[in-house]
Fold Helix-turn-helix domain protein.
Amino acid sequence: MKNTTHPDISLEVAASTFAALGSEQRLSVLRCLVRAGNQGLSIGELGKRTGVTGSTLTHHMKILAQAGLVTQEKQGRSIICAAVAYDAVRDLSAFLLRECCADEVHNCKDHDHG
């Protein structure tokens, strides 16, 4: 049964996005931004909360931004970082679960896929 709630993403896009999340520090940064909500955090505050600072944080933010998971916007003298990953994470989940139990003889009734 095809999931019509979320757009189909390609294997290439899914692999690229999963690769961006393949670092504990990047995952920590993304989770922190998700917790902050739509208002986001300044780059300085994000560094304080995650313990990732300087060029390392810049590097991780670049990778997350290229994957379409976060944004960075200059506001005055600050750079505000925000998660925009909500749909992307849902799409990744749908990608993984799209063919759940497809090779089983019985239907996939025991799993709740939302």
User: Anything to note?
Assistant: The two ends are 13 Å apart (CA to CA). Confidence is low (pLDDT under 50) at residues 1-6. Residues 11-97 form a domain with the Arc Repressor Mutant, subunit A fold (CATH 1.10.10.10). Residues 17 and 67 are 6 Å apart (CA to CA).
